[in-house]
Design brief:
alpha+beta; 5-stranded mixed beta sheet; two-stranded antiparallel ribbon; 5 helices; 7 strands
C-alpha cells in the first residue's frame, strides 16, 4: 500500500510537470470527500478515530481535477491518523478526531480545512513542511504534502499548515477555485 501510495503521488506530480494534469471534471464535493474517507474507515475505526465531514450547502458541485483532489484528501486523512496514533502512544487517553470542513471563500474559492487531534507540528517546521522530501515522521517520505502543495498551486490555490505545537493537533488549510477550466 505504501509503494502504491508513493507511486500514485509520483505519477500525479509527473503529469503536472508535463502540463497534462488530470482534466477538470464536475463532481459532488460532499460525496467525493465522504467516499475518500470511507476508504480509510477500517483503519480509523481500528484506532478509535472519529472522522467528520461538513461541507457548506452552497458548495455542491465543483469543477476540479478530481484524482489529485482525492489523493490530497486521502493523504490528509492518513497523515492525521498517523499523528493521532503517535500522540496516543504517549497519552492513551488522547481523543482521536479528524474534522474535514469546506466553506465558501472569497472570489469563487472554497476553503478546505482538515483538522486532527494528533501530535502536532513544531511551529518552526511549518514553513518548510511542503518541500519535497521534508517529513516529520520517522517512516515518512515527504511526498504527500509536497504533492498536495503542487496540486493546489497548479490550479491557482494555496495551502498552509497550522499547529500550535506538540500535542495540539494540526490543521491543513487549502484554498482552491470552485471551478477551473481545462486548458488545451
Amino acid at each position: 500500500k505504501g509503494v502504491e501510495h508513493i507511486s500514485d503521488i509520483v505519477r500525479i506530480q509527473q503529469e503536472m510537470a508535463r502540463g497534462d494534469a488530470s482534466l477538470a471534471v464536475t463532481f459532488n464535493l460532499l460525496s467525493t470527500i465522504k467516499d475518500t474517507a470511507m476508504m480509510q474507515e477500517d483503519l480509523n475505526n481500528k484506532y478509535r478515530i472519529q472522522l467528520s465531514v461538513d461541507v457548506h450547502p452552497d458548495l455542491s458541485d465543483v469543477v476540479l481535477p478530481q484524482n489529485p483532489f482525492v489523493q490530497m484528501i486521502d493523504n490528509f486523512i492518513k497523515n492525521g491518523r498517523e499523528a493521532i496514533i503517535e500522540r496516543q502512544q504517549s497519552d492513551s487517553t488522547a481523543e482521536g478526531k479528524i474534522d474535514i470542513s469546506v466553506t465558501p471563500g472569497m472570489h469563487d474559492q472554497l476553503i478546505l480545512r482538515v483538522r486532527d487531534s494528533g501530535i502536532g507540528v513544531d511551529p518552526r517546521k511549518l514553513k518548510e513542511i511542503f518541500k519535497h522530501g521534508v517529513t516529520t515522521k520517522e517512516q515518512g517520505s515527504g511526498f504527500g504534502l509536497h504533492s498536495a502543495s503542487t496540486f493546489a498551486q497548479s490550479i491557482g490555490g494555496t495551502i498552509e499548515m497550522k499547529s500550535e505545537g506538540k500535542n495540539k493537533g494540526a490543521t491543513m488549510v487549502v484554498k482552491l477555485p470552485i471551478e477551473v477550466s481545462n486548458q488545451s
